[in-house]
Amino acid sequence: MALDHWLALCAVCWLGAASPGPSLAVIAGATLGGNRATGLTAALAHGAGVGIYALATVTGLALLLAGAPELLRAIQLVGAAYLAFLGLRALNSPLGFSLGSSAGDQAARDGFLIAFLNPKLALFMLALFSQYLHADAGWGQKLIMVATAAGIDATWYGLVVLLIDAPALRTRLEQRGGWLGRGFGVLLLVLAAWMTLGAVWSL
């Protein structure tokens, strides 16, 4: 893969990862509900979810998803339901961010599923990779593209975790943990409703 193409791919992947959305809320919540390790676990799991969609794209599975609107809609609805579950969990927690005793496992699950249950990632990867992936591309180039997408996503959210976990900022956020956590819960419920309406409107 040419260096200029790879750098362009990196730039677009970085912009895609940095776009605000439910993933940011989930990973921020994992960090505040646990610790730096918990947040980084969620970030790495989110990167793994992105990597699966990237792998699906280079193997042609994303084309199947793009051509199957019923399957796309079903995954979107499941993703909306999971967002609603996370939102309700945040609202019902005293601090809004509590992850319980299995914080690491729960953070990994939440980080992975918030990416995996977002079928728009597959469409994003399909649109992005089609610019650089040719019919005669070998597995070396394909794996570089997959690793780039997954690695940049995990790195971005890892930086977010480090920022949130900085002592001064974390102290300020924890002092407002109750209303901030419930604010995240409301945000997730709104996003869940938006995703559900989007899936219904596409019928």
UniProtKB/TrEMBL annotation:
Alphabetized UniProt keyword annotations: Cell membrane, Membrane, Transmembrane, Transmembrane helix
Molecular-function annotations in GO: amino acid transmembrane transporter activity
GO terms under cellular component: plasma membrane
Membrane-spanning ranges: 41-64, 111-131, 143-164, 184-202
Entry superkingdom: Bacteria
Membrane topology qualifier: Multi-pass membrane protein
Pfam family, one: LysE
Location of the protein in the cell: Cell membrane
Principal subcellular localisation of the protein: membrane
InterPro entries: LeuE-type
PANTHER family: AMINO ACID EFFLUX PERMEASE RHTB FAMILY, ARGININE EXPORTER PROTEIN ARGO
Protein's name according to its UniProt entry: Putative threonine efflux protein
Organism per entry: Pseudohaliea rubra DSM 19751
